[in-house]
Design goal:
By secondary structure, this protein is α/β, with parallel strands linked by helices. Helices cover 31% and strands 15% of the residues. It has 15 helices and 15 strands.
Length: 435
């Protein structure tokens, strides 16, 4: 079978989206390409975002390929599946503009939570819930009823959904093939800011070392995909990194939900210390100590982002952080990390347990020692997250995204949004214009 994997050209005007708007490697499509080829399928991957292509230009490539299945994600890169834009404007537009006669398959966080509404809005033929790396090849060989998380409408127009969710065996995922991918166009260095000691870096990339997270923080949107912690084979990851370095990449951002958990992390860092490449990632400070933070420095870590969330033990317990460190110990480790890493960031979430004066004092201490600390902000209650259930008292239904989006807009009715968001976002219905 022939599978065309298309990453749309994303835009976020009017959106509450607070992820990075720059192009990133569509790792969900690159890993699906690996799995599809392993099963004998022919694959064409087109990254319209990285190559700045129009639907017409993509259609011309698809005409020459003549695919059986067209695959479109609903969020830009696995990196942002846990904090996607709420609206389905872009995938809906691209599916309509491409106008293919092949079977259109939608993957991503939206369909994982609200598959029926995602089919309705995008007019796709199939939604795959969960991770689609290993379920996509099954579309060519199995009855759809037997494919975990497969959703579709039958000949009578009745919505059908197979049980389960797609979950990928990460040990079976080989090194991703970048031989015909435009690596050299990826000049964005994710989570690198002017003046943070990384001005010499030129070419960025994203790599996935592990998928999932063993923690269950209430605000985290990972329950229906990328949930269980799984590592890739170290030799495979290193081979992938070496191929990227040969192409000129000198900065790698690990997209892992929580970098630093696995048994192979130390060996990975020791290997990275031998290579001419810098790294960045998101993590928890309680996964590190003085000795391992110094190892990060030797491994050329230049961007170290930690979710602290609350400066009180009560606040962290409310968010189910399962953090055993005291607030003083957290601050000491962040300050120690800054001795070896140019950019150390501590993120805070607004909770009722934290006194603003105490937060300000904690921020001053960290900032005086070179650590960047965010202002506490309310989190978006992503459908599928424990926070959604806590906020609305029920599991997500077909209007879950509209409900969460309206609630989030009301939180900021009397104050501005963050500096990385639109200050006057539109309603979800206005953004999508589908009804």
């Amino acid at each position: 079978m022939k599978f065309a994997l298309v990453n749309p050209r994303w835009s976020f005007e009017g959106s509450t989206y607070f992820g990075c708007p720059e192009p990133h490697f569509p790792l969900e499509l690159l890993s699906a390409q690996e799995m599809l080829r392993k099963e004998g399928n022919t694959v064409l991957l087109i990254d319209a975002f990285m190559e700045d292509l129009t639907p017409q230009q993509v259609s011309e490539r698809l005409d020459a390929f003549s695919e059986d299945f067209l695959v479109i994600p609903t969020a830009p890169s696995y990196l942002f599946w846990r904090c996607p834009q709420p609206e389905l404007r872009i995938p809906t537009h691209w599916i309509g503009a491409l106008g293919r006669s092949s079977k259109v398959v939608v993957i991503g966080p939206h369909g994982s939570v609200t598959p029926q509404m995602t089919l309705h809005k995008t007019q796709a033929d199939i939604v795959l819930r969960g991770e689609a790396d290993q379920t996509l090849p099954q579309l060519a060989t199995m009855s759809w009823e037997m494919i975990a998380g497969c959703c579709w409408r039958d000949d009578r127009g009745t919505f059908r959904m197979a049980q389960g969710l797609g979950v990928t065996d990460m040990q079976s995922l080989g090194s991703l093939d970048y031989s015909v991918y435009p690596v050299e166009r990826h000049h964005h260095l994710h989570h690198i800011f002017p003046g943070n000691g990384a001005d010499h870096l030129k070419l960025g990339a994203e790599v996935e070392f592990a998928r999932g997270c063993p923690y269950s923080c209430t605000f985290c949107n990972k329950t229906l995909f990328r949930n269980k912690y799984r590592e890739r084979r170290l030799s495979v990851v290193l081979a992938e990194i070496d191929r990227l370095v040969v192409r000129g990449v000198d900065y790698i951002y690990f997209i892992d939900e929580i970098f630093g958990v696995g048994k192979q992390v130390r060996e990975l860092l020791e290997e990275l210390a031998k290579r001419p490449v810098s790294i960045g990632f998101q993590t928890r400070i309680d996964l590190w100590n003085e000795e391992s933070l110094e190892l990060l420095g030797r491994a050329h870590c230049v961007s170290f982002e930690c979710g602290i969330e609350s400066i009180t033990e009560e606040g962290r317990d409310e968010l189910n952080k399962n953090c055993r460190l005291s607030t003083d110990r957290i601050g000491d480790l962040l300050i120690h990390a800054r001795r070896f890493i140019p950019w150390v960031q501590a993120n805070l979430i607004k909770t009722a347990k934290d006194d603003p004066a105490m937060v300000a004092a904690w921020q001053r201490r960290l900032k005086a020692n070179g650590v960047w600390v965010s202002e506490p902000v309310p989190m978006f209650p992503f459908p599928g997250s424990p926070q959604y259930v806590e906020t609305f008292g029920s599991q997500p239904d077909d209007i879950a995204w509209e409900r969460a989006h309206s609630f989030y807009l009301q939180l900021f009715a009397d104050k501005g949004f963050s500096d990385i968001q639109e200050q006057h976002p539109r309603s979800l219905t206005e953004l999508e214009c589908v009804f």
